[in-house]
Write a structure and sequence with these properties.
Layout (H helix, E strand, L loop, with lengths): L2 E11 L2 H5 L6 E7 L3 E9 L6 H21 L7 H19 L3 H7 L2 E9 L3 E6 L2 E5 L2 E5 L22 E5 L4 E4 L21 H5 L3 H9 L3 E5 L4 E5 L7 E11 L1
Antiparallel strand pairs: 1-12, 2-3, 3-4, 4-5, 5-8, 6-7, 6-9, 9-12, 10-11
Helix pairs in contact: 2-3
C-alpha cells in the first residue's frame, strides 16, 4: 500500500548586494518533520535593523518549535487557531526578550515570517510580511508594501497587529520563501518556485543552500581578444531563504 511521506529542504544565502556592502545575511530558515506532519519556516530581518538577523534566526527556531509541538499533538494545519497560537507565542517570546525596550525591538526583532505545514489531510501557509509561497500548484507573492515597509509580527507588541495571510489546500508539496526570492522572477514577472521541489533538494541536506549560493554569485570571463573582463550579474542580489515540504510516496 502506498503511504505519503514528507521530504524537507531548506536553504539560506546572503545576497550579492549584501556581500558587496559587507553586511550580514538577515534571513533564516528552519524545518521539522514528524511521523504524520511537517513544517517549514523562513524569516527575513528588517534591513534597517542593526542586528535584525538575531530576530530572524530566533523567530525561525521558535516558530518551528511551536509548530512541531502543536502538530505533533494533533493540531491541523488548516485550523486558524494553530496559527493564532503560534503568533501569540512568538509575540510573547519577543516581549520576554526585549521587554519594553522599543529600541531593542527595532534593532533586533523586526522580521517577516512565512510558514507552511502539511499533514495527511491538509496543507497550509501562514505569513506576516512580504515574501512568496507556492501551494496547491499556485504561486503567490506577498507584498510589495508601500515605501518598502512590510508589517512585522513584533508590531503586535505596540498594539498595531497586521492581518496575516493564510491559505489552505489539500495535502501537497509547498514552498515558502523570503522576498529575496522575487529576484528570481522572469522578465514577464512570473515566479517559478516549483524549481526548488525537485527530488535532489530533499535527498541531499545541503543541495538547496548550494543552489542558492550559485544564484547569489556573479561570474567573470576574460575576453582576451577584446582585452576586457565581462561580468555577469548575480541573480540573487538580496538575501534569500527558502523552505520546501515535498510530498512523497513510499511503497
Amino acid at each position: 500500500m502506498d503511504t505519503k511521506t514528507f521530504g524537507l529542504a531548506t536553504g539560506v544565502v546572503t545576497g550579492a548586494a549584501h556581500r558587496r556592502l559587507g553586511r550580514n545575511g538577515q534571513d533564516a530558515a528552519a524545518s521539522w518533520r514528524g511521523s504524520s506532519a511537517a513544517a517549514v519556516v523562513v524569516c527575513d530581518g528588517c534591513s534597517g535593523g542593526i542586528s535584525s538577523e538575531v530576530g530572524a534566526v530566533l523567530g525561525a527556531r521558535l516558530a518551528i518549535r511551536a509548530l512541531a509541538s502543536r502538530l505533533d499533538a494533533g493540531a491541523s494545519p488548516a485550523d486558524p487557531s494553530l496559527w493564532a497560537g503560534l503568533r501569540a507565542e512568538l509575540a510573547g517570546a519577543i516581549h520576554a526578550l526585549a521587554g519594553a525596550d522599543v529600541r531593542a525591538v527595532a534593532d533586533c526583532f523586526l522580521f517577516t515570517i512565512v510558514a507552511g505545514a502539511v499533514d495527511r489531510e491538509h496543507a497550509a501557509v501562514w505569513a506576516i510580511g512580504d515574501g512568496a509561497y507556492a501551494i496547491g500548484g499556485m504561486t503567490r507573492r506577498l507584498g510589495p508594501f508601500a515605501e518598502n515597509r512590510p508589517p512585522y509580527l513584533a508590531y503586535d507588541l505596540i498594539g498595531e497587529p497586521s492581518r496575516a495571510a493564510f491559505e489552505t489546500a489539500a495535502p501537497a508539496t509547498l514552498v515558502v520563501a523570503t522576498d529575496g526570492a522575487l529576484d528570481l522572477a522572469h522578465a514577464d514577472g512570473t515566479l517559478d518556485l516549483a524549481r526548488f521541489t525537485a527530488p535532489r533538494f530533499a535527498e541531499h541536506p545541503d543541495a538547496l543552500r548550494r543552489e542558492l549560493a550559485v544564484l547569489a554569485r556573479g561570474d567573470e570571463r576574460i575576453d582576451w581578444d577584446a582585452r576586457r573582463i565581462e561580468r555577469t550579474r548575480a541573480a540573487l542580489q538580496d538575501d534569500c531563504a527558502i523552505g520546501v515540504i515535498r510530498m512523497e510516496t513510499a511503497r
